[in-house]
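Re-run with default settings, no changes from the original entry. Doing this only to confirm the output is reproducible before filing.
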Amino acid sequence: MEMAQPESLSELLNGRRAAIDASWPAVGFLAGWLLFHSVGAGTAGALICALGVVGWRLRRGDKPRAVLIGLLGVCVAALIALRTGKAENFFLLQLLSNGASVLVWAISIVIRRPLLGLIVGAVLGQRTRWRRDPDLLRAYSRASWVWVLQYVVRVAVFLPLYAAEQTGALAAARIVLSWPLVAACLAASWWVIRRTLPAGHPGLRHPRTGEPTGPATPADGPTHPATTDRPA
């Protein structure tokens, strides 16, 4: 039996669009660097592309919060590169954030608060209600490992290129590991969720929250007694 909700993770999270937006500053940096072989030209290209994305999204009526946060990240990366005079440092913030993401996502799974569930729950207005559904908790936990792998892949690619000061290769890797990798991650994690949820489960929008919210946990199983008390 198919799950009730039609949306995929990509549709719910707008993940591909956000990843494409995030790749444009890297395109601008690479263009400026290749044309002028200058840190200033590269950072200028990145900022022009970032401002273009912000203007385009605001014009379309998108929420300014996400695009402004992206612009802030590009500004910080550009400032680091300009202050140090090293073009590869434009990607230092990206490298550090991906390394931190590996730890944060892995820890969230271990403590049974998988970040993927928290993100989707916030988008759907469920808060943490999905945690009272053992099937959803298990599905989000398994699917979150796909996201951990995504960040591990980025660190494994970025770190040696950064150490070798390969600015052009870093920019190219940043582009390739943006929307294509995010699209693959969304598809893979969605596949894991669908494979993990049992047949007949109502889906992400409808967590089964009939379990008690008190001391019992989802692992405790049903709370109704197997036998009933009899009068003395």
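Residues 17 and 89 are 26 Å apart (CA to CA). The chain is about 65% helix and 0% strand.
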